[in-house]
Amino acid sequence: MQASRPSFQLPLMYAFRDAFEAGDAGKRLDERVGGERVIPGRGTLKRSFDEAALKRNLVLDLLALMNTIDLDSALDLTGLDFVRRSILNFGLRDIAHLTSEERGVDEIAETLSQALLLHEPRLDRASLHVERQASFDEVNQRIRFNVSAEMSCKPLDIPIEFVAEIDVGSGKVQLTRLPVPA
């Protein structure tokens, strides 16, 4: 007898992503049977997900977050604390001006942590850990950070681990060792 895999609660954001992928997000569906309105199929999304699907959706959002420069890097948000903590300031601080030898590079781990905590509510705050790898890729000018956390889910949390690899010259971030099966 095969043990059943746990079924996880569906995040609300999936409904929007699913409608977009299906190409029906902008269509008005007004189906009627015998004069009565029928709820279209897109409104009857399955209510549970498997672990791989949850991780896949998280990875899409992490990639967007890690490769977006926040508003605070372009405008002075001093005194605008609500804007600084809002979705208007989505992304990471601009790090393209840093080099591998500057003190500021050590602050990148804190920048990564802050962005993840502020803009990714699925990650459990207490479990998030970002640590710079000791080695530095001199040839490609890349700094790597190990990131681990637990994705808050029902009925149980899911561990997540990946490497954020930052190209110091361009400020671009690549995520490797992603928790998504091939």
Automatic annotation (TrEMBL):
It comes from the Bacteria. Residues 54-155 form the IraD/Gp25-like domain. Pfam families: GPW_gp25. Transmembrane segments: none annotated. PANTHER family: CYTOPLASMIC PROTEIN-RELATED, TYPE VI SECRETION SYSTEM COMPONENT TSSE1. This is Type VI secretion system baseplate subunit TssE. It comes from Propylenella binzhouense. The lineage of its organism: Bacteria, Pseudomonadati, Pseudomonadota, Alphaproteobacteria, Hyphomicrobiales.
